[in-house]
Amino acid sequence: MTRSIAVRGLILAWGLALSAAAGAASGLIHAKNLQADAQLAAKLQIPILVLFSSPGCHYCERVKAEYLGLMHKDPAYRKQVIIREVTMGDPKPLIDFNGTPTTEGAFAAAHKVFMVPTVMVFDTQGKETSDAIVGLLTPDFYFGYLMSAIETGIDKVRGK
Known about the structure:
By secondary structure, the protein is an alpha/beta fold.
């Protein structure tokens, strides 16, 4: 009995370590101060992309691993967009675009995010620049959807 509990504990620890490693591997930064991010974005004349995710969401992990994590690590994309992550329902503190203290969960709710993964692109004032990308229905076209949303965001930030 004790051995069975020990084995289950090791399996649980291994699973938690894998999920933590998967999140860390994406390299995405959780939003902490969107007002400061917006000031940087204004200086660079680029939009801010926010991935809304939730723990245990396989599709969220896939979006991070196959798309946004790679983009975040690529210096070419860092010149085009600031990428942040927000976890639905999370009570971690967050400063909104207008400087208001809130939480990640409240920020997601304020933007009517009810399904994950959801990607939204914002201008330097915190306004959405295009329709949200909800879910991962068509992986073959997902990168195109992301690029279209980012390009629309760039055009709006730069006044085109």
